[in-house]
Amino acid sequence: MAELTRSYSKWKTIDLVYCGLFATLMMIGANITTIAPFLVVGGVPITLQTFFAVLAGLVLGSRNGAIACTVYMLVGLAGAPVFSKFMGGLSYILIPTFGFVISFILAAYVAGKIVERYKTAKSYIGAALVAAAINYIIGTNWMYFAYMFWAGAPEGFSYKIAWAWMIPPMPKDIILAIFAGIFAYRLQKMLKIIPVK
Questions:
Q1: Which letter, b or e, does each residue of 49-84 get, where b requires 16 or more Cβ atoms within 10 Å of its Cβ?
Q2: Could you give the number of structural domains in the chain?
Q3: Which tens digits make up the pLDDT trace of 165-186?
Q4: What is the pLDDT of residue 11?
Q5: The domain containing residue 162 runs over which residues?
């Protein structure tokens, strides 16, 4: 019994480390635009948050991937400057791009659920692409409604324009999603982080 307790405790510790690691990677990925400020299109920063959120779900599984993304969001809302452009605090909820931050949680969860059930390389790539699509759908719709109802829409702004702003970063995120799927599949075979259910 004591051995079982020690094993469970060790698993929880490793679990915490992995979640903290991916939350940290998202913090770093969020602020790549401070190094390359030209990576802002239509007011939307092109970051690596989506890549690390998707990777969290693929590598850690649905629960822990979602936890890692939730930790990232809560740390930012608590005031730490971990969102894009080193922003943070509760006021970030009113930023039009906050929907992308929320979407990371669901994206990681769905990606994790898919690979927990299907273990092939194709399923990892498919899960990553589905997660990236979730990120775009939730984030873009949130941005549209934010501009329409409280953020002050630019002149001539429309739903089509909101999606047009997403076109420049989309190829990058599709490529990174495919890479995340391939990388996570190979990494999972070595580390076996996702528990067998």
A1: bbbbbbbbbbbbbbbbbbbbbbbbbebbbeeeebbb
A2: 1
A3: 999 889 889 999 999 999 999 9
A4: 57
A5: 2-191
